[in-house]
Write a structure and sequence with these properties.
The protein is an alpha+beta fold. The chain is built from three helices and seven strands, in the order H-E-E-E-E-E-E-E-H-H.
């Protein structure tokens, strides 16, 4: 009889202690956390290593901190679709571990790599456009030089044509003859007027 009462009291005490620890955990504030940089950590069904193992977590894995048992130093966490378990609180950290940071760095590196590739494509396109503009400018300069050369040649030809016209004897003779003809026609018109004016005097 005494043993029955003792075992009943022990069960009641254990139940109360477990409910109190569970309520203390429930009242704690949940916050995001990470598993520290160990290879893997065993999860237990209760707040000590005396409880059965329910799984493992890898280093750097993201979890949710639910609370801890001050007596055993175990923390309760939530992971993978609302699964919960207990593990030593020294394995829980609130800053990302090296594994998580490495994944973030890989993601950032991939993003930077894409940005660099896009910038390189833009640079290649701008270089192509610049080369095309330089080629068009050189072509325009060549055309301008050809036009200037053709202008100089035409100018020399016109000057040579004008000089050759004045140097031809027939042209000079025709001009002298024309000047003499004009002078011969104008001179008689002027001379009679002078004679008439002398008679009246």
């Amino acid at each position: 009889m005494f043993r029955l009462i003792k075992s009943t009291l022990l069960v009641l005490f254990s139940t109360c202690w477990l409910s109190l620890s569970t309520s203390a955990v429930a009242q704690a504030e949940t916050k995001p956390a990470f598993i520290s940089d160990a290879l893997f950590v065993y999860l237990h069904s209760g707040p000590s290593n005396q409880y059965r193992i329910v799984g493992t977590l890898n280093a750097g894995q993201s979890v949710t901190y639910l609370g801890e048992d001050a007596d055993t130093g175990y923390a309760q966490i939530q992971f993978e679709d609302n699964k919960t378990g207990w593990l030593p609180k020294e394995y829980v950290t609130y800053t990302p571990g090296l594994v998580y940071q490495l994944e973030q760095l890989k993601t950032e590196y991939a993003n930077h790599n894409e940005t660099v590739q896009a910038l390189q494509q833009q640079r290649d396109q701008l270089n192509s456009e610049l080369n095309q503009a330089v080629a068009e400018r050189k072509n325009a300069q060549d055309q301008l030089e050809q036009a200037n050369s053709a202008y100089e040649q035409l100018k020399v030809q016109v000057e040579a044509t004008q000089t050759s016209v004045w140097q031809k004897p027939m042209v000079l003779g025709s001009l002298i003859l024309l000047a003499g003809l004009i002078f011969g026609l104008v001179l008689p018109l002027i001379m009679p007027k002078r004679r008439n004016s002398e008679r009246w005097m």
